[in-house]
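Sequence in, structure out. Go.
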Amino acid sequence: MSSPATSTAPPAVRPALVPVLIYLAMLVAVISSLGAPLIPAIAEANDVSVTSAQWSLTVTLVVGAVATPVIGRLGDGRHRRAVVLVVLSIVLLGSVLAALPLGLGWLVAGRGLQGLGLGVTPLAIATARTALAGDQARSTAAALSVTVAAGVGLGYPVTGAIAEVGGVHAAFWFGAAASAVAIVAAALVYPPSADVPPRRLDVAGAVLLGTALSAGLLALGEAERWGWTSPAVLGLTALSLVTVVAWAVWQLRAEAPLVDLRLARSRTAATAHGAALLVGLANYLLLSSVPRLAQEPESTGYGFGASIVVAGLALLPFSVASFLGGRFAPQLRRAVGQRLVIPVGAVVLGIGEVLVGFVREDLWQLFAAMAVAGLGVGTVFAALPGLIVSTVPPGETGSAMSLNQVMRYVGFAIGSAAGATVLEAATAAGEESPATTGYEGIGLIGLGACVVLAVLTATLPDRATTR
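Output:
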């Protein structure tokens, strides 16, 4: 009898599976960051502040962080293919809603629905492991992890060009068309899952996680406007802390937890999940602020007055370098050893953070800094799946990767909200643009995250990284 690894996809469509999985991961990466280069234009079109418009990016990441473990748990069973198709359909609906000129509230609601798509990537990684075999399974999983970073920047110049010609909402129509293609491709190629018993969904865990993230990020995102010691900010912060503790306790005690935190009890697994959060934070500090930096008027003394297209192109080097970082990670592993791959990537990303913060007198320097940062991000993301898979049984791959994606998306959301807050704090009353110290602060915060990431992963025992 053939094993599940060789019988889950019909032979006629198996060659197309890897490209389709990568396309799905690329799509959700583009969708997740679709609003970043458009934030100034969204603010202008809806007559709101840039900080308010930032929620068109942050809300997608918040919903994605909550939806990822839910979708991962639903997709761990026999209904993985159906789950993927339903989620893609909801993403299409959200894309259409964001594309319609109904105001910022509806745009943010549509972007929230798009955030459900972020749960597709861990399912794609789990599918690669069960439907493919040997080196192909491992290389595809690594490619999918890197695609999360590379796809972000590749979508920027495309959507920027579309928005430049057809307006802000035209970029979201592009997202709708790309989502429709994904539905068709998945319907034709995505393999059925093994016939395993269904797993109960932890609704209480999802509610607690959603409450913790929403309250915490709302407090962080609005603290500068409301006041750091205002009752609203303090209350939301307290609510976030209480619910995140309650969520963790519930996950450890629940019979069928949303995310089995017991899988993260080993030092290696816990470090891998912490690394995902830190690199996600450092990553999105840049991805959410660099497009705005490029579009700041030259009258600020540091801005470049770039168009949306050029602002998107500033992130193209990031995507290319992220891809190359993932491709060169195996060679780096052979050169420095498995234990030092992530620390080296963290150091490179930290250099990129410093360059963006302090070395950007000319536009080409901003492009170069993003290339350096992308190289570091791609290296780290390529190394994380192997670290996770080495610590969990095959049947829990989906749940373990979902937790890692959750931490990554939490980092993304924190980076997006924190970047907006730092720039808001650096903006003087009556001014539209922040002082250059705002972008310097973002670089320093990103550098700090990279230093912590390097120290945590460099101190892992050799045996933990070579299993």
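Check: The domain at 4-201+258-465 is CATH 1.20.1250.20 (Growth Hormone; Chain: A;). The chain has one domain: 4-201+258-465.
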